[in-house]
């Protein structure tokens, strides 16, 4: 705890202040005792929970399932805040997530219960570890989809998508972008309630004014779920980035694995144009102004084949139509959450139906982290992917193999 | 979420006070910490929201810890550091410390220790736990602008009034009003104050309903005049205490110019009237109420405003219709910032401005403490070659009003030099 000593009055390095005042100030040991004994009235110790199992790896730390000791029944998910290698103190990403989660209170958004800390002791150098404590959700969508015993009826798929869009509508109304939509970040409780999770990449957005464009980073969203505008270097994006991800997830409800698994950004763009057609100013006015439009080689004369290629899986025509509207290249034309919720898909027979009955047949928690890899390991290491660009581009056969 | 609002009794039983710091000293520490955050933030180009968030963290922190345990300027740096990240205007810890180094004199910088960055980092964990990660803070600025948009009336006058209210919000951060009332109420109170002082009465507003007696009835309910007055007085007291602190035993007595028959005084008196309707046009009619309702110290505060007013309105020229809006010239002998500062205030109305400068301190009050853990004077050895530092002036000197380059934290250094020069002459 060497650094704590700096909080003590230091003898002047120049003129040597005598220790005359030390009788009134805390000694190093007193200071350490102060921190150790200080009963932070609002920040409980993490020891009130008992870790049960590791269930995942979040954007900025590990996630554990834990049991509340007091009740011995209530389960929580504890997400550790990684503080190592943080030159600038408590990570801004974690602060962002906390602030956003405190703002968002909705049935379809994961609930942050509190933030806990380990006790500062001599053993951890008086540096507490912090945990974000959430209500526990039994499954994530990636885990459910990777288990072939879990079968979703059309009504259940509608329920999943309706809840997902409800959550997106809510966060977008609150001027928050999720920026990391993917099946693994969609949690589902055993009662069938869907919760958007992992706001580690989320941020507040503003409606850009004419001459004052936003400059957000485009290095967000797991590659397979990343929309074309981000892949082309747009930095003035908005809610449509999450809607693209919603489209990818919706298709995955039938295909059971991500529909476009690119290894590189270039390859991801290729897959997108093979599905959604070539990127032209005709279908997407303004695309030519995006940073990477000219520097990246894109497949030409590709026809849009969204409905054609998804119909074998989806079959339901209104479902195909909604997918077509979600997987729209031009973000301005892409359907928003509100409009999507009014789509015929949710208002034609079979109507959305409760998931709890189906889920009650599955007693085992299903998380992507715990599941057998249902696809190449890239999913779990997507951050490495972002930096590993010199991988060999693969041919289109991958799409066929995945579908 | 925790409740961050405290009653007056709780504010008299803070950890610092229980630790032996006097009430007045604690208030001074809070003011100095707040102003330091504003100066640091201004120098680093941070926005008013980031600075205000930092100041609110600072005030909340010391509802749980004593100034004796945690030196105020390290805490202030830490609050600004965290606020920068929370408000999406992050600054490197190193740069904040560098800026602080330029503002603080050596004595204060000792409290940062050998590894100032590590010091701030350690404190950040304590700060986060203390404020329960309740990071989102709203400020009166937002509501000030929201309310102002609804006001009808002469636009230039409205503009001036809002600008004055904005200055008052800046200054209110040096008080503990953010520990007592919601930002909406603070905004209402300080608009009310600015409205009185700038003689812009809000007579009509967008969205007015028959049941609205005053404009703020549209935005806040159950706010009594007592609450509004209390907020205004706390802000006005900043300027009064300026005078007090400036008047050291050995300094020449500063007689405030008599304001007995000044229209300004009359104007201010109307502020204290408990039933002042928005439509009050002739404040003199309410003048008598003050004697009934207001406490003695309120009267003093109100009188002292005669000296405070020029600060608040320095950037606002008197209206052309000859209304007796307080101007520098109206104050007569009160010490005023030079005109150049007035201009800089006008240009930088978003920055906090200095209250009227006190007379130069001649003999120190309590000497600088080398660190905030103790109020003990630093050992004399430190000053063998220099004169003892003067008290911390409560505001920036005449040459630095308006956030000028020389912070008052350095005043000690300058004073030392001055006194040394005098000695060798």
From TrEMBL, chain A:
Q: Name one GO molecular function term.
A: cyclin-dependent protein serine/threonine kinase activity
Record flagged with keyword Transferase = yes
Residues in a coiled coil are none
Biased amino acid composition, Low complexity: 12-23
Alphabetical list of PROSITE patterns matching this protein: PROTEIN_KINASE_ATP, PROTEIN_KINASE_DOM, PROTEIN_KINASE_ST
Q: Which SUPFAM superfamilies match?
A: Protein kinase-like (PK-like)
Q: Which UniProt key words apply to this protein?
A: ATP-binding, Kinase, Nucleotide-binding, Nucleus, Serine/threonine-protein kinase, Transcription, Transcription regulation, Transferase
Q: Where does ATP bind?
A: 79
Protein name per Swiss-Prot or TrEMBL: Protein kinase domain-containing protein
Organism annotation: Drosophila virilis (Fruit fly)
From TrEMBL, chain B:
Query: Pfam families from the entry?
Result: Cyclin_N (PF00134), CycT2-like_C (PF21797)
Q: Does the keyword Transcription apply?
A: yes
Domain of life, source organism: Eukaryota
Compositional bias ranges of the Pro residues kind: 376-396
Q: Which residues form a coiled coil?
A: none
What segment(s) does the record annotate as region Disordered?
A: 242-266, 363-425
Compartments (UniProt record): Nucleus
| Cyclin-like domain: residues covered | 35-129, 142-240
What GO molecular functions are on record for this protein? cyclin-dependent protein serine/threonine kinase regulator activity
Q: What is this protein called?
A: Cyclin-K
Protein's organism: Drosophila virilis
Point out the gene that encodes the protein. Dvir\GJ15154
């Amino acid at each position: 705890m060497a650094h704590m000593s700096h909080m003590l009055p230091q003898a002047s390095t120049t003129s040597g202040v005598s220790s005359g005042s030390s009788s009134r100030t805390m000694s190093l040991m007193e200071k350490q005792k102060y921190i150790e004994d200080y009963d932070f009235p609002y920040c409980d110790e993490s020891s009130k929970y008992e870790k049960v199992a590791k269930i995942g790896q979040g954007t900025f730390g590990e996630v554990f399932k834990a049991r509340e000791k007091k009740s011995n029944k209530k389960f929580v998910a504890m997400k550790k805040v990684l503080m190592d290698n943080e030159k600038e103190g408590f990570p801004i990403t974690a602060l962002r997530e906390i602030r956003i989660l405190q703002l968002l209170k909705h049935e379809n958004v994961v609930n942050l219960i509190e933030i806990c800390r380990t006790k500062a002791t001599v053993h951890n150098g008086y540096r507490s570890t912090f945990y974000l404590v959430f209500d526990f959700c039994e499954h994530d969508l990636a885990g459910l989809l990777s288990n072939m015993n879990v079968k979703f009826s059309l009504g259940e798929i509608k329920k999943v998508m309706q809840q997902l869009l409800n959550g997106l509508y809510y966060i977008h109304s609150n001027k928050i972008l999720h920026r990391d939509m993917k099946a693994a970040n969609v949690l589902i409780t055993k009662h069938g309630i869907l919760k958007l999770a992992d706001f580690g990449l989320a941020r507040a957005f503003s409606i850009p004014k004419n001459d004052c464009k936003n400059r957000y980073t485009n290095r967000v969203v797991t590659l397979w779920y990343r929309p074309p505008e981000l892949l082309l270097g747009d930095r003035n994006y908005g809610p449509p980035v999450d809607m693209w991800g919603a489209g990818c997830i919706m298709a995955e409800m039938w295909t059971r694995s991500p529909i476009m698994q690119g290894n590189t950004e270039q390859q991801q763009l290729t897959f997108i144009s093979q599905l959604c057609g070539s990127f032209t100013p005709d279908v997407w006015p303004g695309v030519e102004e995006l940073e990477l439009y000219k520097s990246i080689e894109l497949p030409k004369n590709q026809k849009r084949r969204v409905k054609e290629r998804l119909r074998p899986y989806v079959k339901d025509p209104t479902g195909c139509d909604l997918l077509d509207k979600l997987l729209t290249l031009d973000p301005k034309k892409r359907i928003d959450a509100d409009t999507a919720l009014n789509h015929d898909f949710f208002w034609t027979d079979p109507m959305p139906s409760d998931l709890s009955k189906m889920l009650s047949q599955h007693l085992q928690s299903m998380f992507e982290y715990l599941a057998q890899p249902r696809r190449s390991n890239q999913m779990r290491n997507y951050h490495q992917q972002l930096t590993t660009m010199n991988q060999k581009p693969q041919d289109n056969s991958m799409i066929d193999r995945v579908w | 979420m925790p409740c961050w609002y405290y009653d007056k009794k709780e504010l008299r039983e803070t950890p610092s006070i229980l630790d032996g710091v006097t009430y007045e000293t604690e208030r001074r520490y809070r003011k100095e910490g707040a102003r330091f955050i504003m100066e640091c933030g201004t120098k680093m180009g941070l926005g008013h929201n980031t600075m205000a968030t930092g100041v609110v963290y600072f005030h909340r922190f010391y509802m749980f810890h004593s100034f004796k345990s945690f030196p105020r300027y390290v805490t202030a740096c830490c609050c600004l550091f965290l606020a920068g990240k929370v408000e999406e205007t992050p600054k490197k810890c190193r740069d904040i410390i560098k800026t602080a180094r330029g503002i603080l004199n050596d004595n204060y910088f000792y409290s940062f220790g050998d590894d100032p960055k590590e010091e701030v980092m350690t404190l950040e964990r304590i700060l986060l736990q203390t404020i329960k990660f309740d990071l989102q803070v709203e400020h009166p600025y937002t509501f000030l602008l929201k309310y102002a948009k609804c006001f009808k009336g002469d636009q230039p006058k409205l503009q001036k009034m809002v600008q004055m209210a904005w200055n008052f919000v800046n200054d209110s951060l040096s008080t503990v009003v953010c520990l007592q009332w919601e930002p909406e109420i603070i905004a209402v109170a300080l608009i009310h104050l600015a409205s009185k002082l700038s003689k812009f009465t809000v007579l009509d507003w967008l969205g007015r309903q028959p049941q609205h007696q005053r404009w703020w009835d549209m935005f806040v309910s159950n706010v009594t005049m007592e609450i509004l007055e209390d907020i205004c007085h706390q802000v006005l007291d900043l300027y009064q205490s300026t005078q007090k602190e400036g008047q050291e035993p050995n300094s020449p007595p500063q007689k405030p110019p008599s304001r007995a028959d000044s229209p300004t005084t009359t104007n201010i008196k109307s502020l204290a009237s408990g039933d002042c309707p928005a439509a009050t046009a002739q404040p003199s009619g309410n003048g008598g109420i003050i004697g009934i309702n207001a406490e003695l110290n309120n009267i003093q505060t109100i009188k002292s405003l005669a000296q405070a007013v020029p600060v608040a309105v320095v950037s606002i020229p008197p209206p052309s219709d000859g209304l007796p809006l307080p101007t520098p010239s109206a104050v007569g002998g009160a010490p005023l910032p030079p005109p150049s500062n007035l201009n800089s205030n006008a240009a930088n109305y978003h920055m906090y401005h200095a209250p009227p400068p006190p007379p130069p301190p001649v003999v120190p009050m309590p000497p600088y403490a080398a660190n905030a853990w103790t109020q003990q004077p630093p050992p004399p050895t430190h000053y063998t070659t220099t004169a003892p530092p003067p008290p911390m002036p409560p505001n920036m000197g005449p040459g630095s009003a308006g956030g000028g380059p020389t912070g008052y934290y350095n005043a000690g250094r300058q004073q030392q030099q001055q006194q040394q020069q005098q000695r060798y002459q």
